[in-house]
Structure formats: C-alpha cells, structure tokens
Amino acid sequence: MIAYVVRRLLGMVPSLLLASVIVFSFIHMIPGDPAQMMLGDLATPEQVAALRESMGLDRPVYVQYALWLGGVVRGDLGNSIFFHQPVSEVILDRAETSLFLAVMSIVLVIAIGIPVGVISAVRHNSGLDQCVSAASMFFASIPTFWLGLNFMALFSVALGWFPTSGFPSVLKSGDWSNLRYLVLPAVTLAAPNSALIVRLTRAGMLDIANADYVRTARAKGLSDFTVNVRHVFRNSLIAVVSALGFTFVALVAGTVVTETVFSLPGVGRLVVESLLRRDYPTIQGIILVVAFLYMFINLLVDLSFALLDPRIRYS
Amino acid sequence: MNSLLSIEDLRVSIRGLFPGTDRIYPVDGVSLTVASGETLGLVGESGCGKSMTSMAIMGLLPRPGGRVERGRIVFRGQDLAGEDMLKIRGRDISMIFQDPMTSLNPVYTVGEQIVEAIRAHEPGASRGETRARVVSMLGKVGIPSPEKRFDAYPHLLSGGMRQRVMIAMALILHPGLLIADEPTTALDVTIQAQILYLMADLRREMGMSVLLITHNMGLVAENADRVAVMYAGRIVEQAPTSELFRAPSHPYTRGLLDSIPRMTDQGALDPDGRLNAIPGMVPPLYALPGGCKFAPRCQSRTERCDSEEPKLFGLANGHSVRCWLFADGGDRRV
Predict the structure, then answer these.
(1) Where in chain A is the domain with CATH 1.10.3720.10?
(2) Phi and psi (nearest 5°) for B48?
(3) B90/A223 touch (CB, cutoff 8 Å), yes or no
(4) Which of B86, B95, B65 shows the shortest CA–CA distance to B5?
(5) The domain A88-308: what is its CATH number?
(6) Partner of A117 at 20 to 30 A CA spacing, among A70, A77, A257, B299?
(7) pLDDT tens by residue, B280-318
(8) Best A215, A220, A226 residue to mutate vs chain B (most B CBs within 10 Å)
C-alpha cells in the first residue's frame, strides 16, 4: 500500500513536467508582452527592451523554462509580475477563498445529491422520481451566472439574508461568520453538481438493483430499507465517489464565472486576470499547483476504492 | 400425504417488455405440492416459468410489474398471501441460486452475509453466539477452516466454495423448504456432484423439503422423489421419479428424454441411436398457440390439440399428464 502510494507520487513527476512544458510554451505563444503591458502604450521601445532584459524575457524560451524549473525544484515558483510578490504567496492568498468555497459546495453536493439520488432510485418511475429528474435536468442546464444573479437578487437584495459579494478573509480576521459570504456562491455551484450526482447515484443504484446478490439479500428476508442501503447503495458508491473527486477539483479551480458574479477573490479569477495581464509566472504556478491537486485527488479517489471494494487491492 | 407447500392454480403475470404491450403470463394454472421431507424436481427449458414459480413462492416477483393473478400458495397450512413474507423468507423458506459467482455481495465477508440472515430474523442474537453458529454451519457445509473463512470475501473463494456458502446461508435458520434454482448449473461437473451430495445429506439431517428447479433430467433422476415437468407456464406432466422415467407419457417429456445422448454398455455413444432433438422452438409468451401449447412441436398432435387446451389427466401411480392422448385415463400412444 505504502509502496503503491510512493510509486503513484513519483509517477506524477513526469506528468507535471509535461504539463509545465505545455503551459510554458503555450503562454509564450500568446501575442502580447508583459513588459509592454506593465509600461503602457507610451513607453519607448528602449524602455520596454530594458525591462524585458531585467525580467529575463529577452533570453530564449528554453533558458527561461530551465531557470523557472530550477526555481520550482527548490520550491520557488518565482515572483508575480503584477503583484511584485512571490507567486506562492499570491496563490495562497486566493486559495483560502477557493478551498472554503469548494468544501462548502462539495458538502452541499453530497448532502443533496446522494440522498435525493437514492430516493429517486428506490422510487424509480414514480411521480416523485420524474419531478426529481426534471429538476436535475433544469439545474444541470441553467448557466451558473444566471442562477447566481437570481440568488443574489432574491436572498441578498430582496430578503437581505446574505451579503451580495466579496469575501473578507476568515484566516486573517479570525471571524468565521465571514463564511456567510460564501453561502450563496456555494449553493450556486452546488446546484448543477448536485444534479449530476443525483443522476449518477440513481443510475448506479438501478444498475445494482438487478444484481444477483441483491436478490440473495431479499431471499434472506432483509427489509427493503436494509437491501437498498447495505446492498444496493453500498455497491453503487464507487462511481459516485470518483465523480465527487473530479467535482471537487473542478470546484477548486474552475469556478471563474461564480467568482466573478459574487466578486470573490478566488483562484479561478486569478488565472483569468493573470492571463490578461500576461503574468507568466503566476499562470504557470497556478496551473502547476492545480495539476498536482488534480493528480493528488485522483490518487485519494483510487485509494478510497480499496476501502469501498475489497476486490481492489494496491501493492 | 402431509404437504408442506401446496400451490393451487397459480397464475402469475408480468408487465410486457414495452409500454402498451399486454401483460404476459409466465406461470398459468400451476398446481403442485411438496410433502414434508420430499424433494420435488421442477423441470423445463429456460423461460418455461419454473423460476417465476419459485419467485412467486418467495414473494419476490419483479417489482413493479409482476403479480399473482389467481391461485393460492399455501405453506404449513397458511395462505402466504396473508403472511408477512419478510418473516418467512430466509427463515421458513430459503433459496439458493444458479450462479454462486454473482449471488454473494462482493463487499462483505461471507460470514457477515450469513450473520445478516440471522439478524433479520433474530434481532436480539448476541454477536459471539451468532458468529459461533455461522462458523459451525460453514463447517457443516464442508468449508475447510471455517473460522478463517468467516472473514473471507467472496472473491477469494472458488465457485464450489461460494455455493457452499450460499447453502450455509440458506440453511442457517433451519427452513422447512429449500428452493434450489439450478444450484449446480454454473459449477464444474466434479463440483456439481459434491454439492448435490451435500444437499442430500443436509436434507436428510435437517428433515427439510426441497424444490429442485433444473433443466437437467439426469439431476432429477438422481435427486428428486417426484418430478413436475413444465412447459410454457404449465405443468404438463407430474409423477414419482421412477414412474416418470419408466413411463414418460407427455410427448414433451418423451422428447426431453430422447434428446439426451445415450451410451452403450461399453460407455461409447450409441452408434445406432440418433440424437432426437425436439423440432421447433418454445413459443414466446406473448404469442402462445390457442390450444395445447406444445401442439406446434408435437409429433402426435390431432385437430383437437389446436383448438382446445387439455387439462391434467390423472393416470395410475400418482401420474398425471396434460395431453389429449390420455383423456380417458388410458394410454393411446401410437
């Protein structure tokens, strides 16, 4: 088991290298120049050239990559061109929002998606199931910015229950009640993802419901509830857990729209803003961290399979 | 005869495969009895309704869509329609299934799965005592080092061992009736014999009745006291085993027996005997012929067979046949 984890972690290195090469080369293919962006349109070519030289942008791309990689190996992601502070600090700053938001959303997704999916499967083809299916299709299809704006109009503006936008740091202020700023964004993000988990749980359970061992469980005299929970649901968990893993990563890094609607200082917006600013080191840093997070969560999901299904053993 | 289970004129319907299609009747007018301590063999091809009959007894018809339309299932003098089947399943009537590879839940140990059966019926049973009972039962069904196997997951056991686990699970509460639905079909031939011996031993020891569902005539010949042959949802012939094999009467039964390859005394395939398969195919349940359901494949059919369905005619020696050839109680075979 430990040997397996070590092997998997080592296996991430080439993947991360490949990801960094791709990102590095793609970024440098984008037209536009950080030095030009920083100095503005009025700068003389000499000024731009001088700044390029001081930033190292005049050197060949592979040299720049080698220098950057050398820093990464030593734990230094470089300095942000825009913020004039280390990229790791910039990311950590934004990571608080993204992680709180992702955790709150995934908790909602689990709390809503799984029970509703189970009920929908147990009562499949009933009126209730059809209502759930319709609602799932609705929430999976509507754009999050529309949902977010409507939540904001209803719960922040009309009812005044939650703040409209922003997120004052919990860690810096120590004030946990600031999490109320994230409630509406979390619900907005949870809606389409819960809908997905509802469908997946339902489909998984209906699939398992026809298994021979479920018939065996009924033949033992177990109640419907026990059969559904201990035998059907338990075996449909694998598909659900792997979907939850992917969902979580997407919630950490892929929530630009929601962050924009609620003006949250999250990682998703940082990527887009840094792209527009041609803040090369920041973009590279974020992509590397997110790629690692993705692989790491994948590893956790794979390891959880061993807990969920005794036939799966890692060695 | 002291009957443990008696089925009277059972008719089962399930919903058609597609919306708008009519209900179909996989079991139609089946009556049979199983006496205490007896093994009744229920024989027929796939789709003849034998498994559906057993699911009706267990109260496990497919939901939604399956239901008993007519008839009664009486167990120990009680109509099962009025009973709480949760209490009866696993305690009074147990079942083992065809495929032991898929009939056990892969995520629980075999011990846990047998314990579940005890807990369902004896909620107060103590953990230690329950475990001891399961281990002793695992030993009884011939599983080596049962104490260790209790904590094994199904995928670590062979097919034969898993079927033994299924038997242990079915018999842990000493049921009066064991329904064995093709219990050896999925096993290697050598394992088949072991499992059948085991079932016969346990049946004698525990004094239970067995409803042995199979398509294998040889299995029935060796293991059943009486045989009922099913075709297209109906029982077409019923007799004590020796009587049935001595004088198979329904053309379908004769066809089934003729389609078994015969050996000479030297053990070679009989060079003179051709293998006689029954011509034609089992009619689908949504397009059954009007009269005798076997008529289209029958070599002895008459005009009457096409227009009118025969009832079960009683013969001597507890033998009954659903065929016009026996309408007067006599044998008019040509």
Answers:
(1) 88-308
(2) -85, -5
(3) no
(4) B95
(5) 1.10.3720.10
(6) A257
(7) 888 888 888 888 988 888 888 888 888 888 888 888 888
(8) A220
